[in-house]
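Subject: two folds for Thursday's group meeting

Dear M.,

Sorry for the delay on this. The cluster queue was jammed most of the week, so I only got both jobs back this morning. I'm pasting them in the order they finished. Each block is the input sequence followed by the predicted structure tokens. Could you check whether the formatting survives your parser before we put anything on slides? The first protein is the one we discussed after the seminar.
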Amino acid sequence: MSVLKKPLVTEKISEQNEQGKYGFIVDKKANKLQIREAVEKMYGVTVDRVWTMNYQGKAKTRYTKSGVISGKSPNYKKAIVQVAEGDIIDFYSNV
């Protein structure tokens, strides 16, 4: 099981990066200890705090030529990780 799925790069999270907070989409079954270990191992930083949030998928409806198509975006779990003072995570280093 891969704990970290992808980093979150949004305006709100990018503002928090200056305070040492970074966002990730994580596995739904991962707990805070597993998230902390995965971030420390992958990015080589020290994690101070972890906040997690579960998001419910939203219903989506499209009106097309062949009729109404309805579906749902997937559920996901988001984690905000605060790293120790002086540590940074650079998501763009491999680009």
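Second protein, same layout:
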Amino acid sequence: MIILGIDPGLASTGFGAIRCDKDSPSILKCGYIKTSPRDHISNRLFQIHSDINHLIHTLHPDLIAIENVFSLVRYPKAGILLGGVLGIVYLSVFQNNISIIEITPKEVKNSLVGYGGANKHQVKETIKKLLKITDVKSFHASDALAIALTAFYRKTSRKER
């Protein structure tokens, strides 16, 4: 099984793909889709759509796990822009007929670090240990890998019940 984790964002959308053939998952690919703030929002969303579709066609994931984001009332414009990114990701998933699950940041932190208030550095270090890698260059990519791993652990724990 291949799980593609996505950490949505307009400036930078993180992605992380893992292969889950056995008890321990392995990394396939990770990185981020960066868009330019100088470009019109329509160009930025189209770039995210195109790049997500390219990842789907290249990696052939069985499942996409996306961070279930929230918007603070103080930043309504950010929430609206993020909603556009989420819409683009959902459209790509639907067009490619792939299963999707949403995972909250707190579930990721609880699942991987054991503490819902863990910081990005703790999550990144845990990802490196679990996947036996030396570094993940971007927090967006490590967050996406964390989302994919949490989806794997969620599916694994449900099979054992």
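Two things I noticed about the second structure. Residues 139-160 form the longest helix (22 residues). The chain has one domain: 2-160.

Cheers,
T.
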